[in-house]
From TrEMBL:
It comes from Oribacterium parvum. Residues 42-55 have a biased composition (Basic and acidic residues). Residues 27-41 have a biased composition (Low complexity). It comes from the Bacteria. Residues 27-55 are annotated as: Disordered. This is Substrate-binding domain-containing protein. It is found in: Cell envelope. Belongs to the bacterial solute-binding protein 2 family.
């Protein structure tokens, strides 16, 4: 989970960097973190001043909002908004199977003409029209978590995510170490099942392959 949260933080920093460079000043609805001038002047760990994001806003669209992980993502996104002086809104569907609901949130975000959008797509193909619309409007999208695989070329400006294939391999390796004695002592073929939470997410698909 720590690696996934770090990936989200990187996505936020990428989007905030875009926000600092320019874009729309339209306001977004929902959970927001509107920072004042003092936040814009906050210093980073290196001692340098962070970018002044006054008038910039970023929509973060996650895969959900009820799970503890997504609550941590929201907290990090809002904190980053305060530190960089950028207005941040956070939305996620009721669960990670609510693909249509996430697409609705994405369409609503695009209509607001934000400076940038951070997106962890549940199903890229279902959102392909919306992603193309964002690109046509010049709204940069930053992918995080599983990213936005197979999106139109040029639509995703950057992606911050775990190498899920390698993560799956590591999980299998560690599992084998725990059950090696049982496997070595088995008199019949050993079968190991992999149970994933859903089948649409690219991150889950890649972990299963790994």
């Amino acid at each position: 989970m720590k690696k996934r949260i770090m990936a989200v933080a990187l996505a936020g920093m990428m989007a905030l960097s875009l926000a600092a460079c320019g874009g729309s000043s339209a306001k977004s609805e929902g959970t927001t973190a509107a920072a004042g001038s003092s936040a814009a002047e906050a210093k980073s760990d290196s001692g340098e001043k962070k970018s002044d994001g006054e008038g910039k806003n970023i929509n973060v669209i996650a895969k959900g909002f009820q799970h503890q992980f997504w609550k941590a993502v929201e907290k990090g996104a809002m904190q980053a908004g305060k530190e960089y002086g950028v207005e941040v809104s956070f939305q996620g569907p009721d669960n990670e199977s609510a693909i249509a609901q996430q697409v609705e949130y994405l369409d609503a975000a695009i209509a607001q003409q934000p400076t940038a959008i951070c997106l962890a797509a549940l199903d890229t193909q279902a959102a392909i029209g919306s992603i193309q619309n964002a690109m046509d409007k010049g709204i940069p999208i930053i992918g995080f978590d599983s990213g936005v695989p197979d999106a139109p070329k040029g639509a995703i400006k950057a992606n911050a995510s775990t190498n899920n294939y390698e993560a799956g391999k590591l999980a299998a390796k560690e599992t084998y170490a725990l059950i090696k004695d049982k496997i070595d002592g088995a008199s019949e073929t050993v079968r190991i099942g992999v149970v994933a939470q859903e089948s649409n997410s690219q991150s889950i698909v890649e972990r299963t392959k790994g």
